[in-house]
Amino acid sequence: MKKVVLGFSGGVDSAVCSVLLKQAGYDVHGVYLDNSDQTALDFACSSAEFSGIPLEVIDVKAELEEKVCRAFTEAYLNGETPNPCIICNPSLKFRNILVAADKLGADYIATGHYARAEDLPSGERALLKGNPENDQSYMLCRILPEQLNRLILPLGTYPKSEVRRMAEGFRLPASHKPDSMEICFIPDKDYIGWISRRAELPPPGKIIFQGEEIGDHAGIYRYTVGQRYPGLIDGRKIYISKIDPSVNTIELSLWEELFKTELTAHNFNWLSDKPDKPLSGLTVRVRHTKWENPPCTAYPLDNDSVKIVCDEPVRAPAPGQSAVLYCGDRVLGGGFIGNS
Q1: Among 176, 183, 182, 147, which residue's Cα sits nearest to residue 15?
Q2: Tens of pLDDT along 66-83?
Q3: DSSP alpha helices (H): ranges in 141-199?
Q4: Angle at the Cα of 260 (from 307 to 68), degrees rounded to 5?
Q5: Of these residues, 17, 88, 296, 310, which one is catalytic?
Q6: Most CB atoms within 10 A, among 26, 256, 258, 288?
Q7: CB under 8 Å to 310, separation ≥6 — which residues?
Q8: Would you tell me how many other CB atoms lie within 10 Å of the CB of residue 112?
Q9: Is residue 184 among the annotated active site residues?
Q10: With contact defined as beta carbons under 8 Å apart, do 322 and 86 qualify?
């Protein structure tokens, strides 16, 4: 019987995964990455006991601070909009699960992400989109090849509603537990308050519209590119189009001025060999959404960056977010959107 180490929070997704993997004939071992409170830990332990799987608890609070929280804070103070899950997945979550798998001599690792990890006819392991209703492949764009090569994603073909029904059918303790929507290390959703307790905040600065100062903002860390700004100008809604930390300004634009056809993704993580020529016929996502996925051509650059030219304008690519390239359903990789 082949062993698999499952990232196990005790929530509905990981609990259903544990049952599906056991039904498929795997010897399932759970790993709980402890970065929360005792209540969450107790629930995970009781859920693992109910599912009949051993559970290893790994305290990752210090590692989370070093690898995710610090980067999250610095990004906002620099006028960027980070996605902490994309940073966390390869450097903390999957790394720890893989280490646990190696200790146990397990062949595979697994998580409850809604994406697919499958072998291509060529024998290459590929990351693919999950069910369109709740696809999470975007969030996995930076996992490492050695992680992908051993990864099983049991929920990839299911909509979340079906997973809920399965949890009820299995009578799992998590079957009616609400989904976790907040950033795990900011449970009250007040990221501004969280940042203010950790760092000195930038002062207020000027708001610019069409080259003229029209007011003051309350601090660049409060805003993100693409966000609507309160109020109207000449009866029209206005939006944040640029945050410039070097001069502490926020620039506003009208809706149609938010759209771009070119962007650059830095520190690009390829899930296959880096191409030596432009790739056409691709699509790109610049945020975790289902409806923005324009056709594009990718131009690999010498400095691990990729220039992306879209056939159709994409709305407000925000520095700090990830640009993820797809070839059909396959994730080719992702990098961080820059200011140019």
Answers
A1: 176
A2: 999 999 999 999 999 999
A3: 145-148, 160-169, 191-196
A4: 65
A5: 88
A6: 26
A7: 260, 261, 262, 263, 284, 294, 295, 296
A8: 22
A9: yes
A10: yes
Q: Is 88 a catalytic residue?
A: yes
Q: Please, how many CA atoms are within 13 Å of residue 245, restricted to the half-sphere of its CB?
A: 18
Identify the CA nearest to 246 among candidates 197, 195, 205, 198. Answer: 205
Q: What is the largest CA-CA distance in the chain?
A: 69
Band of pLDDT at residue 303, cut at 50, 70 and 90: confident
Map residue 14 onto helix, strand or coil: helix
The single residue listed with the structure tokens 């962007």 is 263
In single-letter form, the type of residue at position 260 comes to K
- Other CB atoms within a 10 A radius of the CB of residue 234 amount to 6
Which H or E element spans position 1? Answer: none
pLDDT digits (tens, 9 = 90+) for 180-214: 766 888 888 899 999 999 899 999 999 999 999 99
Cα–Cα distance measured from residue 222 to residue 52, given in angstroms and rounded to the nearest whole number: 45
pLDDT tier at 264, thresholds 50, 70, 90 = very high
Q: What is the pTM of this model?
A: 0.93
Angstrom distance (rounded) from CA 171 to CA 168: 5
